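#onboarding

Welcome to the new folks! Below is a worked example of what a typical request in this channel looks like: someone posts a single protein sequence, and someone else replies with the predicted structure as tokens. Don't worry about understanding the tokens yet, we'll cover that in week two.

Example request:
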Amino acid sequence: MLNYGEELAYWYLRFNGFFVLDNFVYHQTLENRNGDADLLAIRLPNVEEPIGGSFEDWDEKLFTYIGGYDVLGVLCEVKTGVRPDLSKAFEYPKVRYALNRIGFSKYEVDEMLEGNEHFILQCNQKKFIKLVISEHPIRSNNTFLSFSLKDIEKFIYKRINDYTWQKYNARHFFSSSLIQYMMYKKE
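Example response:
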């Protein structure tokens, strides 16, 4: 079950055109112990939806970092504690595992991992972002991009506000009681 931070992060990515997998499991291998990542997501180019699915609807803050791409992957850790530990969140074996799961070729994975110390990994026009979403401020650095839960919540409320009638009338079809409640509050 997702906690409130993970749920908000999930819907933030969904409302930005990603297909999202929550609690992505890292199975034990020779270089990796069992564990999980909060979210793993993929976004293909040319995403469109009739309600909230055009270029103007995407989060400008996120897409400023991305630019053009053929395939975009995101490995996302969500931290709601006061002193989050990110020391192992984006270790080499975990990032490799996630890149393989998204479906990048061996060549692309090797090429991307040469720059593993940066928050955005890239091979040609295929990109992968290491993202942290946190309740308490964490500064972005070279190794990961960081957004606050307040920014995520603000984006979600803006999307709900922009499409109040459509979102409110469809609220029961969203699998999240938190999002249903946010849609109810905006109406």
